[in-house]
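Deliverable D5.2: sample structural annotation.
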Amino acid sequence: MKRRRGARFVGLLIVTSYLAAHVPLFVHAETLTNDKIKESEESKKQAEEERKALKGSLTNVKALLADLETTKSNLEEYISQLDSDLADINEKIDSLNRLISDKESEIQTTEKELEAAREVEAVQYETMKRRIKFIYEHGEASTAEMLLTSRTFADFLNKAEYINKMSGYDKRMLDSYIDAKNAVDAKEQALIEQKTELEEAKEAVLNEQEAVEALMADKEKEITVYEGDIQNKEAAIAEYQAMIAEQDQIIKDLEAAILAEKKRLLAENKKAIVYDGGQFKWPAPSYTRISDDYGNRIHPTLGTQQFHNGVDMAAPNGSPILAAYDGEVIAASYSSSMGNYIMIDHGDGLITIYMHASSVSVSPGTMVARGEQIGCVGSTGRSTGPHLHFSVRLNGSYVSPWNYLG
């Protein structure tokens, strides 16, 4: 009987020693899972706060249109205010698209962490099962029995120490498994919150795009009604001609500045930009049709013959605008007639102009390459729908863009 008990105790000591050697594994896992739980809870809380902020920042189109009602008597002021609202909305759309990209990346990371947490949980669970199976198959000597069989006081203390280690080990193992399971639960909740936020961000983008379309539709209606009103006809024609004259003056002033700069470079024996005669890149790669060509034509709403100094390329709002050729950006600004516009000097008196952009991504003094994106198509300024108005000037006069486009 004593021999059997002794053998059982020796077996328990061997197993205890083996398991005790692996205690650091569970201590490390506990720390790891606690960190993951805290990290997941913080991620979930952050996602909830971002969702609340997102819902509170959506554009109220009705409120914007109501504000614009007071300015409709002055078309230029109305266009400028509406374009300012459009710029704010487009910034929101850009911000939301960045959020969507970030969330998609976060979700990928969380899914990997969840998989790792599940693996830790499975390992802890299997380890507990093996421990329970061992106890069931080999039996567990009672504390009193083990202590009563001690031959000396030192033997008694030695056995008591091992009993404490076994008890402590079992508790740590159970705690580690609970932590691992909690880590999985927390990570799953964080993942659900991130996916919910992603879907809400995508819905917000659609909401903002609808807001852009609603504002552009209102502007198109107001401009068409104003220009088409018979009582306003003469005034509208005069205003249109004044608008074109204003555009031309802005452009001429910039050309004069370019000429002065070239003279300065020549005086200092420095090289100026030179156009090498290459073919232009099509500036609106997403265009669907030419809505208005270069040359004399009957104005669509004024009903009189007017000279159209560029080519209108109908393209989706937000689609890219590309630099037609290598050159230096000499203007990237806004006017109530041209909207957001860009001018590029290609050298030898050749300049390209891009009007009505929803946004501009270059600044004066920037060197750009042929085909580089410089902005996005829009309907800012005196425009009744998304398109790129593309003009070419040579030595101070408008020329047909078809001379340079393929």
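Annotation notes: The helical segments are 2-21, 23-56, 61-69, 75-138, 143-148, 153-228, 233-267. Confidence is low (pLDDT under 50) at residues 1-31.
The annotation will be released with the project's public dataset once the embargo ends.
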